[in-house]
TrEMBL record:
The active site is at D68. Binds 1 Mg(2+) ion per subunit. One of its GO terms (molecular function) is ITP diphosphatase activity. Signal peptide: none annotated. Keywords: Hydrolase, Magnesium, Metal-binding, Nucleotide metabolism, Nucleotide-binding. The keyword Metal-binding applies. Substrate binds at T7, N8, N9, A10, H11, K12, T69, F157, G158, Y159, D160, K180, H185, R186. This is dITP/XTP pyrophosphatase.
């Protein structure tokens, strides 16, 4: 089964392919010749994921899923949340700038509890639409943890060097892809997506 993952982020694409395994052919936006900058103007993770998946489905007629992920920090009222990739002013996916701002915002705060949350939206052609009459499906996953005082580890991407998942004493960046892909927010959302996709094959 061929499905578009609406991303050109090589890290995310590799992570998704590892989690889903080889039962599905997951292709990127580049693979289908989509070079447009798909807008992400929603004010929730769900809205952004839907916006991206709907764009590909409407313009290319292909089954597609898209995700949006946010880091939600309790002491900051859930920020950066939907703005996680552009948290530092005037930047886009600048991880170093985003992490630097997050550490500044948490200076002097004892509560460093946070969670990563991923929402996946799936829109599909037959047979994907058979179970939900063509409408979008949403799958979500989250992982709780804390924000470290400083960065550690050189693996992963985004806020991984700062996020220490619950039950561990190392950051996502230190734990490595194998561990992260078992416990991460994206892994949990993708697991739900995979369960649905596998159910179509039975």
């Amino acid at each position: 089964m061929k499905i578009v993952f609406a991303t050109n982020n090589a890290h995310k694409l590799d992570e998704i392919r590892r989690i889903l395994g080889n039962r599905f052919e997951i292709v990127s936006l580049e693979d289908i010749g989509c070079h447009e900058e798909i807008p992400e103007t929603g004010d929730t993770l769900e809205a952004n994921a839907l916006q991206k998946a709907q764009y590909v489905y409407d313009h290319y007629g292909l089954s597609c899923f898209a995700d949006d992920t946010g880091l939600e920090v309790e002491a900051l009222g859930g920020a950066p949340g939907v703005h996680s990739a552009r948290y530092a002013e005037g930047t886009d996916h600048d991880s170093e700038a985003n992490m630097a701002k997050l550490l500044r915002e948490l200076e002097g705060k004892d509560n460093r509890r946070a969670q990563f949350r991923t929402v996946i939206c799936l829109i599909g052609t037959s047979p994907l639409h058979l179970s939900h009459e063509g409408g979008p499906l949403f799958f979500s996953g989250s992982v709780s943890g804390t924000i470290a005082q400083s960065k550690s580890g050189d693996g992963g991407f985004g806020y991984d060097p700062l996020f220490v998942p619950e039950g561990y004493d190392k950051s996502f960046a230190e734990l490595g892809a194998e561990v992260k892909n078992k416990i991460s927010h994206r892994a949990r959302a993708v697991e739900k997506l995979a369960e649905y996709l596998h159910s179509l094959e039975s």
